[in-house]
Each structure stands twice: as C-alpha cells, then as structure tokens.
Design a protein that fits this description.
With about 240 residues, the chain is of the alpha+beta class. A 5-stranded mixed sheet has the order 1-2-3-5-4. Strand 2 and strand 3 form a beta hairpin. The longest helix is centred in the N-terminal third of the chain and has 36 residues. The N terminus is likely disordered.
Length: about 240
C-alpha cells in the first residue's frame, strides 16, 4: 500500500516543488484541492488496507484467547501482549484516518467545527488558548468551509509541533459577505525559505484562499506568528 501511495502522490509533489524553488514537471493545479483529494484517498486506503486487516487480527486473537487455558503462562502473556499491540495499532490507524478525512466536522456548522478542532487538538493542555468563535448568520459554501477548517488545522499543527508558543488566540467572525479567521501565537516564528515563501501547508492555504477570491496574510517575527484568512462566504 505504501508503494501505491508513493506512486499516486508523485504528481502532488511535482507541483508542490514549485513553491519550494524547484521546477515542476507538469502544470500546477489548485494545491488545496489536490491536498484534500489526497487526504480522502489516503484515509480510504488506510481504512480498507490497514484498518480492516487489523480488526480481523484483533478478532482472531480474541478467539485464540478463549482457547488459551491450556497454554503455559508465557504463551498466555505473549497472547495478551499481541492483543494489546493489535488494539493500539488499530486505534492509531483510525485516528490518522479520522484526522485526514474526519466525517464528523463536515456535518457541523463552520463555527462548531472550529470549536471541535480546538477541543480535540489537545491545545488547552499544552498552552493558554483564547477563542472568540462567532456563529455565522448563514453557512458558507462547502469549499470555503473546507478552506477555513484546513487553515485552522494547519496553524494549530504548526503551533504544537514547531512554535514553542505558550499562548494562541483564535477568532472567527463574519463581516457582511466575508468570513474572517485569525490565529496569533507568541512563539518563535518561522524562518523564511530561500524563495521567501513559507511551508507547503501555509502555501496551500494562501493559494486556495486566493483561488476562492479571498486573501491570506501571514506575518512572522520574534513575537510570534499572525495569520488572517478572509474569504467570501459564497465562493466556490
């Protein structure tokens, strides 16, 4: 399955190279669209290619456990460890698949989805979090909802993994026909790449915002990172 994923991702990496200062081999499509499609595909492959076999292994181990009374203690201990490892592996595959293409948040309103993201990310355990997430008078298009959620997800991931921040402020509101998402942290910021661009995830956010007729402003310095995304609610 990993070789299949690598082959199918080659086209995605080709056009992403453009934003890292390399020459792409093919014309570059919408980055966020391609990333979203890859998320969904990989999530499906994880579920079918790894999740289902692991679930079968776990079930068969449980069946063996019911017949293990005659085994020596070392054998029963080994079987118990295998059951634990199979359960942990299955939980991990499910968690990764859910994060790539979580159906739950797509059934929520945009404001509810952002609140869910903050709650489920573990942010509040690691640092001080301030949120001001306002419900929209009307839900945006599906494309805008996806873009807003993925932007917040990418920023939260960066804060947790790289920033060293102790505080994050996230706000979301609408002004007329425009939705605005703001995230600010007090971390170390990030160095500019040789091309003057940021990482792939933030490049994808910026390009998708512009493709929807909106804007994405990213600033970084010693006081941290500030990101503001503004998108027209009706953009497709």
């Amino acid at each position: 399955m990993l070789s299949m994923i690598g082959q199918k991702n080659s086209r995605l990496f080709d056009f992403l190279k453009h934003d890292l200062g390399e020459t792409p081999r093919i014309p570059r499509p919408n980055i966020m669209f391609e990333l979203e499609r890859e998320r969904s595909r990989i999530a499906r492959e994880l579920h079918a290619g790894a999740g289902q076999p692991l679930a079968g292994i776990k079930l068969n181990l449980e069946m063996l456990d019911s017949c293990a009374a005659g085994l020596p203690q070392a054998g029963r201990d080994a079987l118990a460890r295998l059951q634990t490892l199979a359960e942990q592996a299955l939980d991990q595959v499910r968690a990764v698949s859910h994060n790539l293409h979580p159906p739950d948040w797509q059934g929520l309103t945009t404001a509810e989805a952002l609140r869910y993201l903050v709650q489920s990310s573990g942010l509040r355990v690691r640092l001080q979090v301030e949120t001001d997430i306002q419900s929209l008078p009307a839900e945006p298009s599906h494309a805008v909802k996806i873009a807003l959620y993925r932007c917040a997800q990418e920023c939260i991931s960066n804060v947790l993994r790289h920033s060293g921040a102790t505080r994050l402020a996230l706000s979301f509101e609408s002004a007329g026909e425009v939705a605005e998402l703001r995230l600010e942290d007090n971390g170390r910021g990030f160095p500019a790449r040789p091309t003057g661009r940021t990482g792939i995830g933030l490049v994808a956010i910026r390009e998708h915002a512009e493709g929807l007729g909106g804007t994405c402003t990213i600033s970084s310095g010693p006081q941290g990172v500030a990101i503001r995304v503004r998108l027209p609610l009706a953009a497709e």
